[in-house]
Amino acid sequence: MNWSTGFFFNSILFGVGLAMDAFSVSMANGLRSPDMPRRSMCRIAGVFAVFQVLMPLIGWFCVHTVATVFTAVQRFIPWTALLLLLYIGGKMVLDGMRRKDNSAVPPVGLRALLGQGVATSIDALSVGFTIAGYDWISALVEALIIGVVTFVLCMVGLRIGKRFGTILAGRATVLGGLILIAIGAEIILHHLLG
């Protein structure tokens, strides 16, 4: 594989495209916890970045080993993302509606964060098909670039969410949950409409 400027530019564009769901979910997480410390922001962005690195590599591996199984499972990917985002977003909406006071909402837990990571990166599995012609090192480099872009965009999304979360106070959790549900609907509509 020849690592040209085009390779790196395309990898960055891939990263931006794949990171949009994670960016939006990061904004929702920032809305939920406007006083989130930098350490938690790095943890959230890091989880999304790791999933965005792993999923294309898993897709690449599947193409090179069990392509027929992966092809059969691929049609369920958007539905899995929808179910995960509906569950997490619905839980956030219910928690926000039950909350009577404007006290601080605890930051997103590890289990919910892992679910968000899977839901926002599961479509990146199909990137394994587009990079199937790459050797292992080139596929890894592309996945790492996607991960770095995702991390940066998620940090920006968290900052934006935190800013508006302070303004919205108690309604931020409900709004964040609705955003997750909307992302799930967008994923499935995009899948159904082609």
Tell me the layout of helices and strands.
Elements: H1 5-32, H2 38-65, H3 67-74, H4 77-98, H5 110-121, H6 127-130, H7 136-168, H8 172-193
Helix pairs in contact: 1-2, 1-5, 1-7, 1-8, 2-3, 2-5, 2-7, 4-5, 4-8
What does this structure look like?
It is globular and about 50 Å long. It is mainly alpha-helical and 194 residues long. The chain has helices at 5-32, 38-65, 67-74, 77-98, 110-121, 127-130, 136-168, 172-193.
Q: How large is the share of residues in beta strands? A: under 5%
Number of continuous helical runs: 8
Elements, N to C (H/E)? HHHHHHHH
Spans of at least 5 consecutive residues with low confidence: none
Q: Give the distance, in angstroms, between the N- and C-terminal Cα atoms.
A: 31 Å
Key features?
194 residues; mainly alpha; 8 helices
Short description:
By secondary structure, the chain is an all-alpha fold. 81% of the residues lie in helices and 0% in strands. It is built from eight helices and no strands.
